[in-house]
Specification:
two-stranded antiparallel sheet; binds 3-isopropylmalic acid; binds magnesium ion; alpha/beta; 2 domains; Isopropylmalate Dehydrogenase; ten-stranded mixed sheet
Length: about 350
């Protein structure tokens, strides 16, 4: 008999709908684990608003310690209006930035894919999405303006605030390798999105990326300014395979890309470093308005779990198993409120979870 593999997984349900959708995802993970003869030990830890309420800080030290001890982290969502008036360093968002930095998760992978059965949910005209949308945004996650020098100064009574965008060759190089390696497993195209017509940091991105590209001769590389890219995403999204970009541009473009698919409640993401360790979370937020009402779409969280199996546990079969189960449930016509249209069967969070479990 082969020995059963055991993995420790840290789980951060967070705030709002994070709590209910992670519960559903854990059930899915347990079922898949049993099927593929592994054991997953989940440890729930606090981060975000709930951590502030309990400890007075959004990212308690023991949360980081537990994450570091684990093979991977599954995160729900953090934040809510209750904590919106807190000072910057106490806000739930600070937990997210803090954990990315503390765990060294510099590579954020955000796939935006249109499901055939959900094409009707896209706000774009049929003619535009006809050729499909399957973009992977590779966003640098621990550098740039998010973590650069910032501050305020007053001169003659006039206050000036500044945030600086700084990138080292090393930071650019490692995320570039992530993007090209991802492209090799996809349609072999990388678009570097920057603002090299204005920003010096963008010009360094171009130099570093151009130097690395020849190491991946099969991958086609092109460059696009971010203003043009945001327009091209709604004009002709099919032209993109992998978008490689900085922290801030990636933040903005990934929201745009998710909207194009029409189903932000479906999109998963992974935040990685060099080794297999990663943090997996839906790209949607904590949706406090529908929290606790059994209305949230758990599919992005379930698909985040699929990414966890693939990238951190190195097993693509369980990942495909989960993805196929999700597609089958959609094909059978089941929808949560966010992706529901006339003629389909509306279900709640728990029911959606049960339907996926039944297909595994
Ligand atoms: C995201 C979010 C975060 C970010 C916020 C909540 C800090 O928008 O993950 O895209 O800007 O990175
Ligand atoms: Mg964002």
């Amino acid at each position: 008999m082969t020995k059963q593999k055991v993995y420790d997984i840290a789980v951060i349900p967070g705030d709002g709908i994070g709590v209910e959708i992670t519960d559903v995802a854990l059930e899915v993970m347990n079922k898949v684990a049993a099927k593929y003869k592994m054991q997953l030990n989940f440890t729930k830890v606090l981060a975000g608003g709930c951590a502030f309420d309990k400890y007075g800080e959004p990212l308690p030290a023991e949360t980081v310690v537990q994450c570091k001890k684990s093979a991977a982290v599954l995160l729900g969502a953090v934040g809510g209006p209750k904590w919106d008036t807190l000072p910057g360093d106490k806000r739930p968002e600070k937990a997210l930035l803090g954990i990315r930095a503390a765990l060294g998760l510099y590579a954020n992978l955000r796939p935006a894919k249109i499901y055939d059965v959900l094409k009707g949910a896209s706000p774009l005209k049929d003619a535009i999405i006809e050729s499909g949308v399957d973009v992977l945004i590779v966003r640098e996650l621990t550098g740039g303006i998010y973590f650069g020098e910032r501050g305020r100064r007053a001169e003659n009574g006039v206050v000036t605030a500044f945030d600086s965008e700084a990138y080292s060759e090393k930071e650019i190089a490692r995320i570039t390798h992530t993007a090209f390696a991802a492209a090799m497993k996809r349609r072999k195209k990388v678009t570097l999105v920057d603002k090299a017509n204005v920003l010096e940091s963008s010009r360094l991105w171009r130099e570093v990326v151009a130097k690395i590209a020849p190491e991946y001769p099969e991958v086609a590389l092109n460059y696009m300014y971010v203003d043009n890219a945001s327009m091209q995403l709604v004009r002709n999204p099919a032209q993109f395979d992998v978008i490689l970009t900085s922290n801030l541009f990636g933040d903005i473009l990934s929201d745009e890309a998710s909207m194009i698919t029409g189903s932000i409640g479906m999109l998963a993401s992974a935040s990685m470093r060099e080794d297999s360790f990663g943090m997996y979370e839906p790209i949607h937020g904590s949706a406090p308005d529908i929290a606790g009402k059994d209305l949230a779409n758990p599919l992005a969280q379930i698909l985040s779990a699929a990414m966890l199996f693939e990238y951190s546990l190195g097993m693509s079969e369980p990942a495909r198993n989960i993805e196929n189960a999700v597609e089958k449930v959609l094909e059978k016509g089941y929808r949560t409120g966010d992706i529901w249209t006339e003629g389909f069967t509306k279900v709640g969070t728990k029911k959606m979870g049960e339907l996926v479990l039944a297909e595994l």
